[in-house]
Design goal:
Elements (H helix, E strand, L loop, with lengths): L1 H17 L6 H18 L10 H13 L11 E5 L7 H7 L4 E6 L2 H13 L5 E5 L2 H4 L9 E6 L5 H8 L3 E12 L3 H13 L2 E10 L6 E9 L13 H4 L3
Parallel strand pairs: 1-2, 1-4, 2-3, 4-5
Antiparallel strand pairs: 5-7, 6-7
Helix pairs in contact: 1-3, 3-4, 7-8
Length: about 240
C-alpha cells in the first residue's frame, strides 16, 4: 500500500500540474481523507469497484477534476446529479472551494455517507440531497437554479439530458462525463437536447491521466427555458427516451 500510495501521490501531483490546478496542504489532506472514508465505507456498501489509491486518484479524482478542460469553476452553483460516492462534486468542491455544490442521489444510504464526508472534511456550502431528478427537476427551489449541472452518471446522453437540463439556468451549462467513442450517442441525443432548451457547444475528447481510457466531456448550454412537461414522471425518460 505504501508503494501504491507514493505512486498515487506522484500521479496526483503530475495530473494536477497538467490540469493547471494548484492545491494547498489542506486540500491535499482533504483528498486523502476522502479516499480513506470512501474505502472504509466501501467495505459495508457498494460505492466503488476501484479501491487502489493510485487508481482512485486517476479514475475518480483526476477524472472529476478534468472538467476544467471545458470549464474552470470559480464561485458557481453546481449540481452533481446521480453523485453516487460524491463524484465529481466532492473533488470539485475541494479543488474549487468558492463553489456552491449540491450532491443529489436517489439512494439514501449514499446521502448519509456523503453527509459524513462533508462533516469530516469540514466543507462549507455543500449539501447532499436524497431524491430523484424527475421530482426535484420540477421543484421551483431546484429547477433552473444552477449555473452548472455535472454528471458522471451512466446513462445514454439523451436520457441524462432530460434529467439534467431542467436544473440549469438560462446561459448555464450541463456537462456530461462520457467514456469511449460517443459520436453516435451524441448524434442520437441532439434532438432531446434541443427539445429541452439546450445546444451542444463542446465535445472534448482526451485520454484519462495515467491510463489508456478514452474520455469525453460533452458541454451543452441552456439557451431557452425547458418546457414545463420535462422531466417526465419517474421511469419515463429511461423507458421512452426523447
Amino acid at each position: 500500500m505504501d508503494n501504491d500510495k507514493n505512486q498515487g501521490m506522484l500521479d496526483f501531483k503530475i495530473g494536477l500540474d497538467n490540469l493547471d490546478i494548484r492545491l494547498n496542504d489542506l486540500q491535499m489532506k482533504q483528498f486523502i481523507d476522502y479516499y480513506e472514508l470512501l474505502i472504509e465505507k466501501n467495505k459495508v456498501m457498494n460505492l466503488t469497484a476501484i479501491t487502489e489509491f493510485s487508481e482512485v486518484i486517476s479514475k475518480h479524482f483526476l477524472d472529476s477534476l478534468s472538467i476544467i478542460k471545458v470549464y474552470r469553476p470559480t464561485d458557481e452553483k453546481i449540481l452533481d446529479l446521480g453523485t453516487g460516492a460524491g463524484l465529481p462534486g466532492i473533488p470539485l468542491k475541494i479543488a474549487f472551494p468558492d463553489t456552491q455544490v449540491v450532491l443529489m442521489d436517489s439512494l439514501n444510504k449514499r446521502i448519509r455517507f456523503l453527509d459524513e464526508v462533508i462533516e469530516k472534511l469540514d466543507l462549507n456550502n455543500i449539501t447532499a440531497v436524497h431524491g430523484r431528478a424527475e421530482d426535484f427537476g420540477r421543484d421551483e427551489k431546484y429547477r433552473e437554479a444552477f449555473d452548472i449541472c455535472a454528471s458522471r452518471a451512466v446513462a445514454r446522453l439523451s436520457i441524462l439530458s432530460e434529467y439534467c437540463v431542467p436544473f440549469v439556468k438560462l446561459g448555464g451549462k450541463f456537462i456530461s462525463y462520457k467514456s469511449g467513442n460517443i459520436s453516435e450517442e451524441l448524434k442520437e441525443a441532439e434532438r432531446a437536447i434541443k427539445i429541452l432548451g439546450a445546444t451542444v457547444i463542446q465535445n472534448k475528447e482526451f485520454d484519462l491521466a495515467h491510463t489508456d481510457i478514452k474520455r469525453s466531456l460533452i458541454m451543452t448550454e441552456k439557451i431557452y427555458k425547458t418546457p414545463n412537461k420535462y422531466p417526465r414522471t419517474s421511469g419515463k425518460p429511461s423507458k421512452e427516451p426523447l
